[in-house]
């Protein structure tokens, strides 16, 4: 008995020692350039439009609002951890000479792939983000020969070819379209959205990018925001309580995005194009939440209105407003680790951690990378 338990303890110890080293082995990138929306915005919107995010955003990890629409870290933050790289600074953040040595985040909350409309929350659509990258790169090339002073803050030139280019965008094109279009019109617009995405990828390839990491979109019909607006009639909901049209649109967007990734894999024989199936990871989390230690798969942690959604489109997380003659302040739930959803639109840090850990199994990637992973890492998840 005694020897059995000490073997177990030794094994656990070995296990704990090995994980931090093994997780960074396969991701040996010198830098990350990220493009996207709020799913990977590390402060772009607040810097770019001078907006403020209020507490309790950030409360779990950064202990104050960090520009992320979350109580803590995002998927991209956990991926940076796995690569032993620092969290990405937003391109738009000009204060205090932020370091871009290990990469730069061009993602801005509310951004679309398609060019932004005049009244869009974020004017920084995908094409603009790509244009900003080109400006960023040109500025780096410009500063490079001068050396020294800027060395601390900017990447070296070879990083543009060796770096990882990550993408998580499309959610606002698909979910946003339902406010003004019929289901058929939303579906019909997908090829146009993806043509714009492809054009951006091609531009980056022409600029020297060779490692592409593309996330598909999540099960958008499971977000409280969409259920509140489009799911009042129970016949519009599936067995998980998610809006069927939005789930279907997410799936069709993803099928076409996957086809595009396969096409790019064939077309760019000197590049790595990795597709990551975020939809399956998030769907699994929502369907099997209790198995993964969560208690609420859909209800927002930080929202107004109480069960079943705790979501109120009139007021956002942390805001105080007079509603129906009463002053309301939107606070967080007691324990955000029990919730998949943070504010009705974005996931909690706990859920983002789960998604990132699933990504790192390699099982949701095309091409998969699990076979190259040290076996101890595989055991972890
Ligand atoms: C593609 O990825 C492999 C494995 O990570 C790496 O060895 C190779 O250099 C990458 N190709 C390019 C063009 O960067
Ligand atoms: C939930 O878990 C079951 C059992 O592991 C699995 O078969 C199913 O595919 C999961 N659901 C989703 C949506 O992934
Ligand atoms: C506010 O008042 C309107 C109209 O009386 C009512 O329909 C609505 O349910 C009220 N909302 C809340 C959150 O109390
Ligand atoms: C949150 O915690 C407070 C204090 O412990 C308790 O009174 C309240 O019922 C809790 N709320 C929920 C929703 O569990």
TrEMBL record:
InterPro entries, A to Z: GDSL (IPR001087), SGNH_hydro_sf (IPR036514), SGNH_plant_lipase-like (IPR035669)
Lineage: superkingdom: Eukaryota
Gene3D superfamilies, sorted: SGNH hydrolase (3.40.50.1110)
Cited CDD domains: SGNH_plant_lipase_like
GO MF annotations, alphabetized: hydrolase activity
Signal peptide: 1-24
A matching Pfam family: Lipase_GDSL
Keyword field: Glycoprotein, Hydrolase, Signal
Alphabetized PANTHER family for the sequence: OS05G0401000 PROTEIN, ZINC FINGER FYVE DOMAIN CONTAINING PROTEIN
Family classification: Belongs to the 'GDSL' lipolytic enzyme family.
Protein name: GDSL esterase/lipase
Lineage: Eukaryota, Viridiplantae, Streptophyta, Embryophyta, Tracheophyta
């Amino acid at each position: 008995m005694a020897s059995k338990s000490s073997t177990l303890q030794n094994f656990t110890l070995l296990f704990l020692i090995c994980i931090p080293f093994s997780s960074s082995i396969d991701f040996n990138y010198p830098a990350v350039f990220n493009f996207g929306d709020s799913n990977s915005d590390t402060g772009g919107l607040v810097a770019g439009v001078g907006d403020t995010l209020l507490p309790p955003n950030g409360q779990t990890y950064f202990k104050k609002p960090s520009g992320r629409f979350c109580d803590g870290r995002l998927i991209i933050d956990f991926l940076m951890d796995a690569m032993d790289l620092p969290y990405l600074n937003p391109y738009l953040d000009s204060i205090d000479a932020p370091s871009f040595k290990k990469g730069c985040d061009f993602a801005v909350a509310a951004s679309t792939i398609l060019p932004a409309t005049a009244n869009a929350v974020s004017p920084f659509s995908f094409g603009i983000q790509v244009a900003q990258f080109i400006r960023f790169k040109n500025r780096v090339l410009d500063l490079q020969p001068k050396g020294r002073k800027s060395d601390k803050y900017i990447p070296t030139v070879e990083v543009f070819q060796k770096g990882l280019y990550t993408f998580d965008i499309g959610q606002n094109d698909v979910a946003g379209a339902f406010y003004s279009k019929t289901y058929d019109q939303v579906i019909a617009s997908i090829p146009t959205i993806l043509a714009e995405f492809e054009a951006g990828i091609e531009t980056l390839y022409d600029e020297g990018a060779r490692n592409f990491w593309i996330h598909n979109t999540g099960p958008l019909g499971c977000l409280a925001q969409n259920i509140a607006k489009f799911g009042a009639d129970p016949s519009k909901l599936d067995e998980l309580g998610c809006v069927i049209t939005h789930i279907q649109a997410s799936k069709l967007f993803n099928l076409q995005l996957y086809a595009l990734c396969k096409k790019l894999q064939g077309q760019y024989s000197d590049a790595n194009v990795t597709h990551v199936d975020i939809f399956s990871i998030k769907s699994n989390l929502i369907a099997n939440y209790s198995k993964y230690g969560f208690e609420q798969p859909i209800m927002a942690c930080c929202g107004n209105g109480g069960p079943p959604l705790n979501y109120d489109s009139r007021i956002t997380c942390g805001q105080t407003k007079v509603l129906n003659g009463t002053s309301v302040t939107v606070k967080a739930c007691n324990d955000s680790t029990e919730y998949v959803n943070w504010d009705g639109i974005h996931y909690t840090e706990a859920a983002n951690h789960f998604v990132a850990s699933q990504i790192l199994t390699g099982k949701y990637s095309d091409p998969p990378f699990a076979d190259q992973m040290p076996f101890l890492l595989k055991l972890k998840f």
